[in-house]
Amino acid sequence: MNTIRNSTLKSAILVFVLTSTLVAGIGEKLAGVVTDISGSSLIGVNIVIDGIGSGTASNTDGEYFILNIPPGRYTVRFMMMGGEGPFHILHFE
Asked: Using CA atoms, how far apart are residues 20 and 91, in angstroms rounded to an integer?
């Protein structure tokens, strides 16, 4: 089960990198869709931005967004619901 979760989350991160955007403005917006390698939506993946106390979970369509992110460099963590298993880190500026 952990192997499947690990593989699924790695695939989700790849899709995130390809579909996420940071939109310029007063506050930044981080948005995207979390899917597995087959394109199926992943529900309940926790997305947390370290250092600012903001986060969310993907909805039933795998979509998520976080608003009002101050400009800066952040570490974004993706974890399956409950924080079990591996998590992956992305860095954004």
From this structure: 13
- Residue 51: CATH number of its domain: 2.60.40
Find all residues with CB under 8 Å of 14, minimum gap 6, and list them: none
pLDDT, tens digit, 9 for 90 and up, residues 13-41: 545 544 444 444 567 889 999 888 888 99
Name the residue among 45, 25, 91 with its Cα closest to residue 55.
Answer: 45
pTM: 0.64
73 half-sphere exposure, CB direction, 13 A CA radius: 1
Q: What ranges in 1-93 are assigned the alpha helix state H?
A: 2-19
Residue keyed to tokens 């989350």: 9
What pLDDT band is residue 53 in, cutting at 50, 70 and 90? confident
Domain count, the chain: 1
Domain of residue 27 covers 2-92
Cα distance between residue 31 and residue 7, in whole Å: 22
